[in-house]
Design a protein that fits this description.
5-stranded mixed β-sheet, 26% strand, 349 residues, 31% helix
Length: 349
């Protein structure tokens, strides 16, 4: 008698013995061996094809997990530039960004008003207190707001063009400095929650400001739009004066809180945020100071930034792990910013 050494066949035989008793001996005949071998092969084929859907499912899950992991690696988990959490539910209008004026539909171009986009700190007056965009209270001096109206107003705290760093430091102090605040204006551009079109809301807000006679409270001037060429000329003029850009608001728009399809911002250069990965030492005239920052974008792209810093910023560069804002003109084919330069350390408020 020939011994059967196939493990699957032996297992199958043992199953048959347990089911039908000892009529199957431990030394099966050649005919029985062939029969059992055929049955074992059939079982294995059935098992193989029955597992195919499960194998495909497992491969699909693995592939999705791999893709998710790759995306996670490209966009670091601790890289976050989310919009501030407005936990008080302030009625803020947030503009959409335009790359150029031609993106506006020419059919309704003349329905827009345009104004300078101030490089200031967003401030919302709810009738009692001033708030940052995030909902945190601004510690303004009592005299600054004591004559403000009881209805809401929205605008920018502003010290002048190219003065953002001074302004930012002043308005974020726990104890307000009167001397600093006397250099600050509250420049209004919206009457939150008011009825009527944007043009009418502005006029109502202007009437309020005119009655109050507060020197540091004013409306940001608006200009009617006539053509794309006019927008481009205005943007060029403001850029030469170191202004941040333009805001275009549909004159007939009702008030709409949140990201609005009726309000756009237009800048001569684009800006974005990136995370500081490393600080590279300077050489030559920058010996002993920072030479450049190694940055990483939210998409995981890394590049060096070495322009836009003054000597004080090079002596005390942004910390590793912090976020900075940089300006750029365009993107390269590989997804890196062209002509990037440092603007400031990024703050979410």
């Amino acid at each position: 008698m020939k011994k059967i050494k196939n493990d699957s066949l032996m297992e199958f035989r043992n199953e048959l013995r347990s089911e039908f008793g000892n009529e199957f001996s431990s030394e099966p005949t050649t005919e029985l061996s062939q029969d059992l071998n055929n049955r074992g092969k059939a079982r294995r084929q059935i098992l193989f094809y029955s597992l195919l859907p499960l194998n495909f499912l497992a491969l699909s899950v693995s592939a999705k997990s791999f893709i998710a992991a790759e995306r996670s690696a490209a966009r670091p988990a601790d890289f976050s530039i989310a919009e501030p959490d407005n936990h008080l539910g302030l009625a803020l209008v947030l503009p959409l960004a335009l790359r150029d004026a031609s993106q506006l539909l020419s059919s309704n171009l003349t329905d827009y008003l345009m104004s300078e986009k101030l490089d200031g700190v967003r401030a919302y007056w709810d009738g009692k207190k001033l708030y940052f965009r995030s909902g945190r209270v601004i510690n303004a001096p009592a005299w600054f707001t004591e004559k403000f109206p009881t209805h809401p107003m929205d605008g920018e705290l502003w010290m002048g063009r190219a003065q953002f760093e001074r302004l930012s430091g002043a308005v974020r102090r726990q104890q307000a400095n009167d001397q600093e605040w006397r250099q600050i204006q509250y420049c209004l551009f919206e009457y939150p929650l008011a009825k009527g079109e944007f043009r009418q809301r502005l006029q109502d807000l202007q009437n309020t400001v005119d009655k109050l006679h507060i020197p540091w409270l004013r409306i940001i001037p608006q200009e009617s739009v006539k053509s794309v060429e006019q927008i481009e000329a205005k943007l060029k003029q403001l850029s030469l004066q170191k202004a941040e850009g333009l805001v275009l608001h549909l004159a007939s728009a009702e008030f709409q809180a949140g990201r609005s399809e009726f309000v756009y911002k237009l800048k001569p250069q684009h800006d974005a945020e990136a995370k500081v990965i490393a600080i590279q030492a300077g050489q030559g005239k920058y010996q002993g100071m920072m030479g450049a920052l190694l940055l990483e974008t939210s998409e995981g792209k890394r590049f060096k930034l070495g322009t836009g810093f003054d000597d004080e910023q090079r002596r005390n560069p942004p910390q590793v792990g912090s976020l900075i804002t940089y300006r750029y003109r365009d993107w390269t084919a590989s997804g890196l910013p062209k002509f990037a330069s440092f603007v400031r350390v990024y703050r979410p408020e």
